[in-house]
Amino acid sequence: MKPLSQTQLKTFLERFDNFKDAELRSLEILSATQMQLTLAIQDRARDFDWITLSLLFLGVTDAKLPQEKQLQFINTDEGISIFYDNAAFAFAIGACYNISTVKNSIFYILCENIKYKEGLF
Predict the structure, then answer these.
(1) pLDDT (tens digit, 9 = 90+) per residue, 23-41?
(2) Per residue of the chain (121 residues), what is the pLDDT tens digit?
(3) Model pLDDT, residue 59
(4) Cα(38)–Cα(60) distance, integer angstroms
(5) Alpha-carbon distance 43 to 24, whole Å?
(6) Spatial distance between the Cα atoms of 33 and 38, rounded to a whole number of angstroms
(7) CA distances from 30 to 8, 10, 36, 48 (A)
(8) Phi, psi (5° rounding) for residue 72?
(9) CA 117 → CA 6, 70, 77, 114, distances in Å?
(10) What one-character-per-residue DSSP string does 60-115 give?
């Protein structure tokens, strides 16, 4: 897995069009502070072919998680927000701009680090 740095965030989100219309496939809770989300997304770097992308959240400090069976029903039309604020990464469904909007999302994770891995569709 590759680490995602705060300086890469803008390029990363642009590459995947802010995860608009992504398909959330699975959410694994690996430990109290580690979670992995797998999703299908179109990749601009591959002429918008669909790929599988796994996001590993390390040092999770707060989260609001859906049940596994609800993942497929989460609407990602507005995309996914990922940003770095106050020495932490924030991941949330929808357009979020600060921690208070993140905490209003139906699904969010606050963590110290994020790693990612690309795979075949």
Answers:
(1) 999 999 999 999 999 999 9
(2) 999 999 999 999 999 999 999 999 999 999 999 999 999 999 998 888 999 999 999 999 999 999 888 988 999 999 999 999 888 999 999 999 898 999 999 999 999 999 999 998 7
(3) 98
(4) 17
(5) 15
(6) 17
(7) 25, 27, 7, 30
(8) -65, -15
(9) 17, 23, 23, 10
(10) --EEE---GGGGGG---TT-EEEEEETTEEEEEES---SHHHHTTSSSEEEESEEE
For the entire predicted model, the pTM comes to: 0.93
* Residue for token pair 């803008």: 10
In this structure, what token pair is assigned to residue 57?
């959240």
Tokens of 14: 């642009």
In the numeric block, the tokens 């890469």 are attached to: 8
Confirm if 41 and 54 have CB atoms less than 8 A apart. no
For the chain, first and last CA: distance in Å? 17
